[in-house]
Structures are given as structure tokens and as C-alpha cells.
Specification:
The protein is mainly α. The protein contains four helices and two strands; from the N terminus they run αβαβαα. It is 47% helix and 8% strand.
């Protein structure tokens, strides 16, 4: 949600984008002191908040996301999409030119 604004949830997405930009700035500022900031970008997670949503193959269990977070922190990756396949989905979504993206209904 924070990588590309969408009509259906642009306020939610803008809040996520703000957190990502904040974390990026913190990462840069704290790098020389040895503090590592990891930005975790989870896709759809099956939680009580999303209990009423129809689930598909893109959905993940909280335990899987937690394992991925633990691994990302251990490796010190700066930005991690979880599950891993969301990285490639978002690469494609970010590559769509804005003039086409505004016409797509999500």
C-alpha cells in the first residue's frame, strides 16, 4: 500500500509511505553509529483485522511473516517484502507508468 497510491485506500497507503520514508531517513542517520533500521513491508496477512476478507494464494499467516522478519533482522536487510514474492509483484506495479496506473481499478 505504501509503494503506490490507490484510489481504494490512498489515506492508508500514504501513512505507510510516510513510515517508509521516515525509516529510510533513520537508516541513513543511524548507519554510522552501528544501528540498523529494517523496513518490513508485509503483503496480505491473515489476522483478526482481516478475518472477514476473502483469502487467496497471496495471503500469509502471521507465523510466516514473523519468521521472515526474524531472518531480515538477522541479515540486516534494509527493506524486505514478505512473503518474498511481494518484492517482485511490487517491482511490476511500480514499473507501470502513472498514465496507465490511474485507469486500473483495484
Amino acid at each position: 500500500a505504501g509503494d503506490r497510491g490507490r484510489a481504494s485506500n490512498y489515506v492508508y497507503g500514504s501513512a505507510k509511505a510516510a513510515i517508509s520514508a521516515f525509516a529510510s531517513g533513520m537508516r541513513q542517520r543511524l548507519w554510522s553509529s552501528g544501528v540498523r533500521v529494517v523496513t518490513i513491508k508485509p503483503g496480505f496477512v491473515d489476522t483478526p483485522m482481516t478475518a472477514a476478507f476473502k483469502k487467496g494464494f497471496l495471503w500469509a499467516k502471521p507465523s510466516g511473516i514473523a519468521r521472515g522478519m526474524d531472518q531480515a533482522i538477522a541479515v540486516g536487510a534494509p527493506v524486505v517484502y514478505l512473503p518474498f514474492f511481494w518484492r517482485w509483484i511490487m517491482v511490476i506495479i511500480r514499473l507501470v507508468p502513472e498514465r496507465f496506473f490511474v485507469r486500473v481499478k483495484f
